[in-house]
Amino acid sequence: MKASPRDQRALLDLAELDSRIRRAEAARASPPHAARVKELLAERQARTQELAALLGTRDDLQAEIGRIEADVAVVDARRVRDTERLAATSNVKEAQGLESELASLARRKSDLEDAELAVMEQLEDAQAAVTAAEEMIARTNAEGAELSAAGKAAVEAATADAATATRDRAAVAAGIADDLVAQYDRLAIRNAGAGLLTRNTCGGCHMVLSGTDLAEVRRAADDDVVLCPECGCILVRTEESGL
């Protein structure tokens, strides 16, 4: 196959643009921090479940305090009633009974207040655990949002770069002979498509050509399309090839 040296050199630009497009597509498919964002989502789910359990514990303790306070209110009301009855009675036996009940109610209230203090301490610990869990979730959400935004920006940049490179590729390909572009495209399915021959090394596969292969390359005319004997890509020869 024949092609002008200029067209053959232009294949290097085509190969570079194809490489750029592949890198952009890879970046778009796998944005940075994607693995960390996935980890954060799992962490948030686990911490949300933990928070739900902590909230349940806190709510149970608050309900327990409510029950104790209701019992205290009942005791207080009973004490007020018995105190009023004691003040109004002249019956010694009834007075003794009321005094005994008032003493019992005082002990009951003391027990309830002690129980309330114990539950309030538990509630304080439970609320601290809830606050810590909420702060952890907030930090997880903040990190996830930051990384997601960075990933989105990277995808947008990669998409724009791929579009620019695709447009530039079309412009470069339009200036190259159609049959040479077709040959390059067929080869590019399996390898680099084209590579610069630098001294005795193929730029497509980076393999060193043997002396026999180099001799054949030297014998080829400038407009001959020469393929790398190792990878099959088009060997582009320039002044850098050292032939």
How are the SSEs ordered, and which strands pair?
Blueprint: H1 5-29, H2 34-88, H3 92-174, H4 178-188, E1 194-198, E2 201-202, H5 211-219, E3 226-227, E4 234-236
Parallel strand pairs: 1-4
Antiparallel strand pairs: 1-2, 3-4
Helix pairs in contact: 1-3, 1-4, 2-3
Task: Tell me what the structure shows.
This protein has 243 residues and is mostly helical. Helix content is 75%, strand content 5%. It has five helices and four strands, in the order ααααββαββ. It has a four-stranded mixed beta sheet with strand order 2-1-4-3. Helix 1 packs antiparallel against helix 3 and helix 1 packs across helix 4. It is rod-shaped, with a radius of gyration of 42 Å.
Provide the descriptors you would attach to this structure in a database record.
mainly alpha; Helix Hairpins; single chain; 4-stranded mixed sheet; 2 domains; rod-shaped
Short summary:
This protein is mainly alpha-helical and 243 residues long.
Annotated CATH architecture of the largest domain: Orthogonal Bundle
- Gross morphology: rod-shaped
Low-confidence stretches: none
Mean pLDDT rating: 94
Query: How many domains would you count in the coordinates?
Result: 2
Tell me the major beta sheet. 4 strands, mixed
The CATH topology of the largest domain is Helix Hairpins
What's the total helix number? 5
